[in-house]
Amino acid sequence: SQYGPTMNRPWLHNRISVEHKLDPMLMSQHDIDAFHSSSSFDFVGGYSKIDTLYPMTETPYEPMKILANAAPEGKETIPELEWRRKILFVKDRNLLGPNYFVVRDDFGNATKPTDWSCWCLAESVEFNGNTAVFKGKYGVDLDVFSVSPEKASWVKNKGVIPPPPEVQKVSYGPPADKWPEEYRAPKEDHAPVVSHNFTYLGKQWMALNGKKTYEERQYCARLEQPAGKGYLCVLYPRRREGEPVPAYSAWANGEGAALTIAQEKHFVLHATQEREIKADGIEARAASFIVKRIGDNKQLTLVRGSLLRADGLGIEGAAPVTLK
Hints:
By secondary structure, the protein is mostly beta strands.
């Protein structure tokens, strides 16, 4: 849960952390400064300025020296870093078709390494090259494909594994050093995992679920980059049965992604700034665009930029524009 125990550690949210330390982002300058929505895409961009870091225990299961709202110790002032996140939601007219996200994170004036976390309520997460696959509980899985880092090294460690609720309540239970050994000191490396098994609405839960145990267990796909290097990832949800698994690849010198989905081919540029692109029959002067080739049907969407041409179609002028 994001509410309790305290979850103000950046790496326990779907965001970046700087040097794997706490930052008071919400007390610093931050804002959304771009938003567009249409039938073919949504786009949102924002920034946060980070100039202070604090050390913090890895999980809320470990003893903490401070309370959630107490003044932290070990304050470190750093040169002001600007973190920018841009999210592109690629839409299909069919709600069960290829609808997915492309997420870019970049840093200005960076002097510290970062990590990038994607948490998901799931039964498990598996890593295969640049792709992490979350196995969902209800027949829907999530692929996370890393364009940048170019060679993904998904974080695994021997951190604590919360016991299942049948073994022990952990949300407000004893700290990790009181857990059974196989949970407090796992022998094998594993993806980060957290669990929340305390419900504020116990009576309502039991009225609907009887004696079924309540638990929210989340797994994490985490990447790391040195100072100044950013992230570009595709997040693609899909049904486990009856839906093709896309083939993913980096495209446009790592500024975008190419997806092959059965008979469809998608090219998505999601760059830090406007680029000149000439590749795969596509010519563009843009920061973000989507080109879809679906048999004889073509679709061009210029999200941010001034020029996009492909397959006999062309857009020139102010974005955003979609042409079919």
